[in-house]
Amino acid sequence: MRNPGITIIGAGFGGLCMAIKLKEAGYHDFVILEKADDIGGTWRDNTYPGCACDVPSPLYSFSFELNTEWSRLFAPQQEIWDYMRHCVRKYGLAPHIRFGTEVTALEYADDRALWHVTTAGGERFTTHAVVLGMGPLHIPSYPEIPGRERFTGPAFHSARWDHSCDLTGKRVAVIGTGASAAQFVPEIAPRVGRLYVFQRTAPWVQPRPDIRLDEIRKYLRLPGAARALRYAIYWFLEARGAGFAIHPRLMKTQERIAARHLARQVPDPELRAKLTPGYTIGCKRIVLSNDYYPALTRENVELITDGITEIRERSIVDATGREHEVDVIIYGTGFKVTDALSDFTLIGRNGLKIQDAWRDGMHAYLGITTAGFPNLFFLLGPNTGLGHTSVVFMIECQVRYIMDCLRLLSRTKAKALDVRPEVERRFTERLQRRLSRRVWNQGGCRSWYLDANGNNPTIWPGFTFEYWARTRRMRPEAFELIGAARA
Ligand code: NAP
Hints:
The chain is an alpha/beta fold. The protein contains 15 helices and 21 strands. The protein has helices at 13-24, 42-45, 77-90, 179-188, 217-220, 225-240, 242-245, 252-265, 269-274, 292-296, 354-357, 391-412, 421-435, 439-442, 464-471; strands at residues 6-9, 30-33, 97-98, 103-109, 114-119, 124-127, 129-132, 155-157, 171-175, 194-198, 205-206, 287-288, 301-304, 308-312, 315-318, 323-325, 328-331, 345-347, 376-378, 416-419, 479-482. The strands form six sheets. Strands 3-2-1-7-19 form a five-stranded parallel beta sheet, with helices on one face. Strand 9 (171-175), helix 4 (179-188) and strand 10 (194-198) form a beta-alpha-beta unit. It binds NADP nicotinamide-adenine-dinucleotide phosphate. NADP nicotinamide-adenine-dinucleotide phosphate (NAP) binds at residues 52-55, 137, 143, 145, 158, 175-181, 198, 200-201, 284-285, 308, 332-335, 448.
């Protein structure tokens, strides 16, 4: 491959946004490397039945590419994927994308202030800057349950749905009850013979106001209407997110809404008790669903809360010793997030490995840059995940910030910029102090938001307009400019 000026890794929402903004700025010397054979990231990988966004689509989309054609407020996966393809076509990104190209190593060459990129196919080339747009939720996590490998029937993860496996009339086990399982359980329950749902921790579930937008499409096409709807949703979600951003006590209203939903949808007191969470709402991702609880009340569905001790050739054994014979196992067990880069070769200045730089947990200044890794930018990096609104908003803030960094490089003729370690340290310490008082840390649960040390390296603890304000202008003094001709 010719040495591109900028290498973007991943063709999901992040990578595509970066590419669009580079082109808009007149910069064409970049490549998007995508390990799969299509664009879409998480919206390509997750094809399970019922997959849809749990953030309203008018906000879960680019602000510069409003879509008036969403069929529903919470668009299904296929529509979101189509929207992303539309962006690729409209902004002419296809010639920049290299499919089937997995990056296996990134190594910084101090003497030339360049990155060496190595791919799984054995290619090696250099690039000035790297944008990591892999997203935080792309490596499936499988539970470490004794005997998992012994199971002889079909077994797959929700993000690797096996559509060739016909579930009709089968005895199916679902392990996990997070946002993904809550979407596919109601879809498969009427089809399967028997469904065993293994729940370790009950999720809080709120109603999903999934109104149809196709019926008001003609109004949304009026000038300004789609933008007005986007703003209205944005501010509604920010206001509702006050409990996340200010104090867990403010989550009480949210909890009441969820408790009422449970009481209304699950009449059986025994089942309701099993489904009542024992932690503050918001500590884990809040599930939005109108059909998850009704699915659990079906005759052919059993909720098992006793924990799994063993998986055998054709069965699952729970902690009471009961053996459940099953034909298929579906893992709705989430993703590797806080240790996503643990096996990746990422070597920065003076041979610094990312595993050493992040020995005590992931961190990055504004979630975008980390000291010792010049000209390496994260999209949806550490501490930029959200519990209350759209991460596409965060991506746009990050891309604007990275564009500012690139402009600074070109203005100063510097070869690279590296965030000053003390700036990043102060930022991280303040962030962690704030997080220590927020619901994800204080709510009495364990989730993928927290790492093995109990730190929270995943979530942005405030309102998103604060993040917008903090990333609106980059502060050149926060960075060391390497090889600058001018100060
Ligand atoms: P998840 O929220 O991490 O849920 C994983 C589930 O598996 C949890 O119920 C967990 O139980 C369970 N589990 C994990 N290991 C287990 C074990 N050893 N034994 C028994 N149960 C085990 O994963 P997810 O549902 O795939 O969702 C991940 C994230 O993707 C969400 O938080 C959300 O951000 C995103 N998502 C978004 C949408 C959307 O509409 N935008 C849809 C789906 C997912 P514990 O709770 O006890 O750990």
